[in-house]
Amino acid sequence: MRTFAATVLALWLALVFWLSVGGIFVSPPGAPPIRLLLGVLIPIGVFLVAFWMWRSFHDFVLAADVRLLTGTQAWRFAGFGFLGFYAEGLLPGYFAWPAALGDMAIALTAPWLVIALIRQSRFAGSPCLHRLEHFWDFRFCRRRRHGSSGSASVSKFCRDADSPNANRGPNDTSAAGAHPDICGSNVHHFSFGRPLSGATAQVKGGNKMINRRMRSPREKVGGLYHFGRMLDKIRLHLRGELPDDYKPNFGLARGLDGLLAQFLNLKQSQIVARVSEGGPDAEILEWCFTNGLRPNETQIQVWNPLAEKIGWGDRAAATVERVRKQTGRADIITIFDCIDANEGRLVSTNS
Asked: What pLDDT shows up at residue 350?
């Protein structure tokens, strides 16, 4: 796909250069620049159609390095040249000034954004980008609802999560229904300021206590966030060693464990039963893929951002805000942050 994309871009550049030399984009005096407008809109339209209809291209675009894409915007400082064309009378001021200043502003901010992306990986998940990303991923998922293996399950997950106004009963356990209670005051409990009861193998980290028995939800197994942590909790539960603070949330269909089970087209009880039979993470993961959903790259890119950003600008934000006030830590912005801060992994950046 990378070679194909590079070839298409090269051919497109050659075509535009040839058409420009031939004066195709030049309109007669007094006529609107329709041909120039088409030259701008057609490539954008082709890109959007390909992104929407072609799964391989969709995956290729989403896999792009955001840091590299952001860094390439620095070349736009060349927009300063528009002012030179304006000074020579070649461009009108109403076009040259906005175009030049806009390009230069983007170019000047690009390096700082790249630095922020490198230093803070979560910086890429701004609320605006978060919603735009989910807009495309959810609709891509829904469009493929009756597609290849497992797409129906993920489409239901996406459909539920993307339909906050659907009618839901009190016992609803859909992904969207999970949002109000996924970390509500009566569901998840964060015991800051005291050791986790019942936990063992805790390691001091400065003034923090890190529970090594349960991994961070950000540690991936099979490319999936939270899967390894879910297995850790199940194993502790089966041995009767799950900390008391975690018992109220264990097995909740509206919690992270339940959402991940739904995503994999399984029930939490099925995964618990399989873990009870023993085996390493890889074997249990393969069992889940075989008996439920084997997610492809696009489907994984639906689950991971959704899971990591729960509590950021959604209906679980009230719980995050409560924890932030309780701890006095402004760097806690998602449910993942609440968990990692509670277990001593998220080092405070407060001065």
From this structure: 57
Q: Which amino acid is at 292?
A: G
* Owning domain of residue 42: 1-21+37-53
Q: Is the pLDDT confidence value at 271 over 70?
A: yes
Q: Could you tell me if 130 and 305 are in contact, meaning their C-beta atoms sit under 8 angstroms apart?
A: yes
How far apart, in whole angstroms, are the C-alpha atoms of residue 34 and residue 27? 8
**DSSP structure string for 173-236:** -SHHHHGGGTT-TTT----TTSPPTT--SEEEETTEEEETTS--TTS-BTTBTTHHHHHHHHHH
Q: Is 63 within a domain?
A: no
**Predicted local confidence at residue 346, as pLDDT:** 77
Rounded Cα gap, residues 133 and 147, in angstroms: 21
Are 315 and 196 within one domain? Answer: yes
Q: What is the pLDDT of residue 120?
A: 60
pLDDT in tens, 274-327: 999 999 999 999 999 999 999 999 899 989 998 998 888 777 788 888 888 888
Cα(330)–Cα(333) distance, integer angstroms:
7
Burial class (CB in 10 A: 0-12, 13-18, 19+), 160: buried
Range from 55-59, 99-103, 190-194, 321-325 carrying the lowest mean pLDDT? 190-194
Q: How confident is the model at residue 167 (pLDDT cuts 50, 70, 90)?
A: very low
How buried is 211 (Cβ within 10 angstroms: 0-12 exposed, 13-18 middle, 19+ buried)?
Answer: buried
Regarding whether 325 and 179 lie in a shared domain, the answer is yes
User: Residue 85 in contact with residue 57, Cβ under 8 Å?
Assistant: no
Residues 155 and 286 in one domain: yes
Task: State the DSSP code for 28.
Answer: P
Q: Please, are residues 324 and 332 in contact by the beta-carbon 8 Å criterion?
A: yes
Identify the DSSP state of 267.
-
Question: Which residue's entry shows tokens 């993961």?
Answer: 285
Residue 27 lies in a domain: no
Q: What is the pLDDT of residue 170?
A: 38
Residue 226 has pLDDT above 90, yes or no: yes
Q: Do 273 and 336 have their domain in common?
A: yes
The answer to whether residue 59 sits within a structural domain is no
248 SS3 class: helix
* One domain for residues 178 and 317: yes
